[in-house]
Fold this sequence. Notes:
Elements: H1 3-18, E1 36-43, E2 48-53, E3 59-63, E4 67-72, E5 77-83, E6 94-99, H2 103-106, E7 108-113, E8 121-130, E9 133-146, E10 155-160, E11 166-170, E12 210-216, E13 222-223, E14 241-244, E15 249-254, E16 261-265, E17 283-288, E18 292-293, E19 299-300, E20 304-305, E21 307-310, E22 315-319, E23 346-348, E24 366-371, E25 392-396, E26 401-407, E27 413-418, E28 428-433, E29 439-443, E30 450-451, E31 456-462, E32 474-475, E33 479-480, E34 484-489, E35 503-507, E36 513-514, E37 520-523, E38 527-536, E39 542-551, E40 557-562, E41 573-582, E42 594-601, H3 606-609, H4 619-627, H5 644-650, H6 657-667, E43 669-670, E44 677-678, H7 686-698, E45 712-717, E46 726-734, E47 745-753, E48 756-758, E49 764-766, E50 768-772, E51 777-781, E52 787-794, E53 800-806, E54 812-818, E55 825-828, E56 846-851, E57 858-867, E58 877-885
Parallel strand pairs: 14-18, 33-39
Antiparallel strand pairs: 1-31, 2-3, 3-4, 4-5, 6-7, 7-8, 8-9, 10-11, 11-12, 12-13, 12-14, 15-16, 16-17, 17-23, 19-20, 21-22, 24-25, 25-26, 26-27, 28-29, 29-31, 30-50, 32-34, 34-37, 35-36, 35-38, 38-39, 40-41, 41-45, 42-46, 43-44, 46-47, 48-58, 49-52, 50-51, 51-58, 52-57, 53-56, 53-58, 54-55, ...
Helix pairs in contact: 4-7, 6-7
Amino acid sequence: MNLRLLSILIFLLAFACSAPKVEDPFAEVKPEETRFTKIALVEGLNEPMELEVLKNGDILFIERNGSIKRFYRSDNELVEIGFLEVYPDGEDGLLGLAKDPNFEENQWIYLYYAPLDGPPINRLSRFTLVEGLLDRSTEIIMLEVPVFRGCCHSGGSVEFDGEGNLYVSLGDDSTPFESDNYNPIDERPGRPANVDAQRSSGNTNDLRGSIIRITPQPNGTYTIPEGNLFPEGTPNARPEIYVKGNRNPYRISIDQRNGNLFWGEVGPDADVDSMRRGPKGHDEINLATKAGFFGWPYFVGNNKPYWKYDFAKQESLFEFDPNAPENTSPNSTGLTLLPKAQPALIWYPYRESEEFPMLGEGGRNAMAGPVYYREDYENSEVRFPGYFDEKVFIYDWMRNWIFTVSLTENFEYDTMERFMPSTVFDKPVDMQFGPDGALYLLEYGTFWRAQNDDSGLYVIEFAPGNRKPIAKASASVQKGAAPLSVNFSSEGSQDFDPEDQLSYSWNFGDGGTSEEKNPVHVFQENGTYDATLTITDSEGLSSESKLKVEVGNTPPFVAIEWSGNTSFFFDDEKINYEVQVMDPEDGEINEDEISFSIDYLEGGFDLIQTGHQEEEISIGETYINESGCKGCHAIANESVGPSYTEVSKKYLNQADASGYLYDKIKNGSGGVWGERIMPAHSHIEDGKIEQMVDFILTLENPDFKNEKLPLSGIYSLDEPNKKEGYYFVQAAYSDKGGNGIAPIRSQSQLVLRHPVVPAVQADEYKGSAKANTDVDQFLKFTENNSWMRMERVDLKDIKGLEFMLNPGSVEGSIVVKAGSLDGPIIASTQVLSQASRPAGSKRNWFPVEVKLQESGDIQDLYFIFEANSDVSIWNTFNLYSIQFKK
């Protein structure tokens, strides 16, 4: 070899060996909790169940009521992409979700749910997302499991391993309440089937009480992988079973590197050991490195044995043997001799555990999360450190903790420690590491079977070094005539390193500067200025936040004079109205340039609450947002499908455009804009589709269906008295600009809702929860002095209130205060209880009327529950609705 070339190679090798490597300072050292940041992505969910993080950072998740939702991480938008009609009682509903290993190519997801109609079954199906939405016509039913409706233990977690095998956890479908909360093995003839878990968890010929493992095939069928508990062809045994002997394996996870299966087993409720029945209840964290039988209903924890109990004679016969368990129940169709029972990895009772005292005491609901490997997430600034390598994350839904567990080389328990002990977790229900190495988390929220305000989707990110501060600038006004005085604020800015000293620097863009946190600045000259807030920490890291301030043109003044109540509409009301518009630069206003509309919208009041009320709202666009169409189409930019502007251009001035587009949306179409197919939207009401079409066609033809109202007159509120509908009144005007500043558009809006307001539509709650029924929702007051708040309620002409309520077994009254919790009392009920129910009434709900005292016009209203007896999450005072009466 050429000596010169050899010397160059040696030099390069030496340089490579001496080049600095990216070190992990927390490979061995436990990081402090302040290096983790829990970030809320979306909150106020309705019983979230399972999630999947996609490669692009979007998150799919499901809610028990049947909703499939997608959180678009790039623009922080939540869209419902599908809905299944599900059986909602007991612990059933939409329970499990998994994406296919090749999801980015085939768009397949797997759902485990309880169908609403038909025989009592739970079903595993594969669906295809078409243009980002769940296409129900693509459902392929893979597996159906007959169940006993009414109670309990459905399981339902769905996960893939690294080899493409699909796991589904199934509960024992048995009631715990008729066996004194020990093991339900009641074999008496004539008894309900669900009092004997030997027919399910102990039955090798039944999928319930198992974690099954199958290999899905492209045609929607499945095969049986090698290594399941019972080889194919074994008499009286289902080959799908991987793990048997489960009570309620509610959340499972799989180590993607080695296939180890983890699950949390929700255990029985007995609080004390019984000499002749068996051990007290324990929850378990289990690990299966291979197929096995894990004991229920014969053993719990580390194989603590139950007794064979004769319910007819009330005699205990013998203790079950974990080395040779037998199922002799007449309710079983499977093998008599069962495999040797495997002990749990971790187990703990209600009271403090002798073996694992760090887990605390109290209610319990064990769940298993993922195993972490740092090197799987290269080039990420937020991935967890190597300290957590090979550790499994476990969590408890009742105790609101997360622990990390270290295992030995033989996958036996070694140690565990609390993760983020100072952070609040509200009923964690599923977690998964995303492609960025951050931990994504669903929290169910405080109350069972409820839409909780403290539920949500969160991400936990890690920062290994100094964290950059976050700058957030705001201004009291950003447009106006010179001289323009602006109050600037840095409120909301933060730094996650508590030891950092922050400095604030403002550059207002006109030569002015300030070092104050919240300065006031006066812009003397007309022009457009970029005001910049820069925040710098002690180590020199900084971030900026910019605001545009336009000086020289005053926003138009737009107001709607409305003679009626501005919060509610009433039957057959005639309203005098007038639109007023003024602009100092424009002078006299051309009325033809003022837009004004009054529309009646069918659907929930919350549609408008989640909209962008600072802008004009199109009724059609509102329905587009509601239907989830933004998942495939944008207003101006091309997405999965064409933009709405492109569609509007294509059908500009086409006579049959309205009917044509209506048919495409209602019945689906393909081939117009390429090979992609738009699924049918037959579930959307006809009137809503018509409004959506009108909005699209108006984008390129503003005069399309331009039915302009006069700017003053009398309007009749004569729509049918529908509790879910509302009137939307809006006026807007764009001025002509001035002094080099572009035109500014201002608007004024009124939202008139039905005077019967469901309690769950209040704006804020404290000590209360939204409870789900089979068909509706109501509010539970779960502690004394709990309350709900309604923002800016117009009390003009309101004389009284009617509460529709059910006191349950609690005595108490509802007090209404104006303005604040310390404000004046403007109404209150008498002390109410079940005895207050009107004579002859058989309804759970009954009305209570109260008079309203004078309180001014527009107020925040606080509805406070004052209890005269004990209140708890199980013993509540319930409110269904409030009617505002003239």
